[in-house]
Write a structure and sequence with these properties.
The chain has a single domain, classed as TIM Barrel, CATH 3.20.20.70. It has ten helices and eight strands. Cytidine-5'-monophosphate (C5P) binds next to strand 8.
Length: 229
């Protein structure tokens, strides 16, 4: 599967997620806290068994031993990508990496830096100094040093991270909007712009999941990025 599109299955019921993926056919999907809390690993296993590449977006952030064990279980489930918070620190990142390295076919291990919902004032309130970009870059260096495969980043950080870490560092980007809309995502780009800036994977939820015809919405996005394949 070589599409850069990862469809965010942000549903409260597994039936809705399954109904959508049946319509879309072969694709990469993301299961986050909402759907996982409802449906647990059974749905992950079901989607993996049906041939979908699953990004398990649970953003692990805990002591190294706990995160390492959770990452091993994610690898056992057969997920294609899993993520951890870079703010969990060096030992936690190294433990996560060591855990997935035990698998001959292992999931991509991706770090989350500063959530895109946080603004400058929020950083100060949790004791982080410097700009959002400073913090993202510092955490990306840490993740890269610890052997993680890449980062989740906002579209606005793609160029900085691509220029700093080179072509093999995977950049996974939410905040993708094919057309300008007003919702909770503030720092957005179109799929083509994000790929042009150097993103590897585009996490796209509502532009596809809430479209009146999700397959048509996906196909239109695929057409818009056809030149970046
Ligand atoms: O619907 P939408 O396209 O905004 O979905 C984006 C997805 O990416 C959601 O599942 C959201 O939780 C996730 N995400 C994000 N920002 C981050 C990390 C993950 O929007 N920094």
């Amino acid at each position: 599967m070589n599409t850069p599109i990862i469809i965010a299955l942000d549903f409260s019921k597994p039936e809705l997620a399954l109904e959508l993926v049946e319509q879309l056919g072969s694709c990469r999907v993301k299961i986050g806290k909402q759907l996982f809390t409802r449906s647990g690993p059974a749905l992950v296993e079901k989607l993996v068994a049906r041939g979908f590449e699953v990004f398990l977006d649970l953003k692990y952030h805990d002591i190294p031993n706990t995160v390492a064990r959770a990452c091993s279980i994610a690898a056992d489930l057969g997920v294609w990508m899993v993520n951890v918070h870079a703010l969990g620190g060096r030992d936690m990142l190294l433990a996560a990496r060591e855990a997935v390295d035990k698998y001959s076919v292992r999931p991509l291990l991706i770090a989350v830096s500063i959530l895109t919902s946080l603004e400058q004032n929020d950083l100060a309130a949790v004791g982080l100094q410097g700009t959002i970009e400073d913090n993202v870059l510092r955490l990306a260096h840490l993740a890269n040093d610890c052997g993680l495969d890449g980062m989740v980043c906002s579209p606005l950080e793609i160029v900085m991270l691509r220029n700093t870490f080179g072509k093999d560092f995977k950049l996974v980007t939410p905040g993708i909007r094919p057309v300008t809309v007003t919702d909770d995502q503030k720092r957005t780009m179109t799929p083509a712009q994000a790929l042009q800036h150097g993103a590897n994977y585009l996490v796209i939820g509502r532009p596809i999941t809430t479209a009146s015809n999700p397959l048509q919405a996906l196909l239109a996005i695929e057409t818009s990025i056809a030149n970046f394949g």
